[in-house]
Amino acid sequence: MNLIEALQKFIIYLKINRNASPKTIEQYSFHIWKFVCYLDNELTKNIDYKFLFLSFPTEPPLIKQKRTNLNELLWYFDWKIEDIDMEILNNFRFTISEQNLNIKTVNAYMISLRTFFKYLKKQWFIVLDSVLIDLIKQQDRKVEFLNKSEVARLFDIVDTSSIQWIRDIAIMECIYSTGLRISELVALNIRDVNLKTQEFAVRWKWWKVRVVYLTDISRSLIESYLSARNDHFPSLFIRHNYSEENESNLSDTDTRLTRFFITNMIKAYSLKAWILKDISAHTLRHSFATTLLENWADLRAIQELLWHKNITTTQVYTHVTNPQLKEIHKKYHK
User: Fold this and answer.
1) How far apart, in whole angstroms, are the C-alpha atoms of residue 311 and residue 303?
2) 282 part of the active site
3) Per annotation, catalytic residue among 181, 219, 256, 286
4) Is 308 noted as a catalytic residue in this protein?
5) Would you call 181 a catalytic residue per the annotation?
6) Quick one: CATH architecture of 148-331?
């Protein structure tokens, strides 16, 4: 079977059988298409991988042209799935490693290819065995988090005399008290949050929903922020550097905060608080987890709150709390 045809069937499998999220499908598509381009860059250089899988009710001339190019590619591209061996894959890995990609990113490419060949094997095609595709050994994952003193300094540095600053501290407290991912935070709407019960549902991985719980402090800060707002936008957190005269012409997309904005905002406050760690929104998520663990929360409960698929992902936090455990052991085990 032609490699590109196999890739198209794989994407359909991800959508229908695996019910994978759009982001997951896009990542697999991107990684495997890079491999296709590596095999024949001359044929593929004018093709956008997204046109392999997207459909349009009406197609503009540019898209029609790209589809024509794709059909020609399917005709001339002569790499078959049975032609791919470990030497080719290892050469591809070496090539992308030379592009200043870190080990984690290179491994992500190989994981996508391994999943692809595993799928082909399940379809009874004679292809390379996916178990032969190993990964580059990495150092143990390092988790950057804030201790209690640093958390206090970060929140104390925020001036709450303007609506923007009330918003900023509400965002940081919301992440720290719930363990939200930044992508989940920016997608929140006002109607999603029940401040009376101090909880809300988060749509995760496209079709899964989990419940997130607010602390008294985070609820109070969100209430203060929302009471200071006087706009029609549905987003829970918005930008406020727009003209009120132009408000009626703005959409939700125009005012909804981005991941980039929130990450830079948290970094700026950390520098003001003289926190020398390179922190981000995810650092507050890590701090949420380590705070729970330091207060003897059950690891399985932390796994559920963080919505980790595997307990091994959550266990990384046990390493960062080991110094505290050592002190407790010395204190109580004489």
Assistant:
1) 6
2) yes
3) 181
4) yes
5) yes
6) Orthogonal Bundle (1.10)
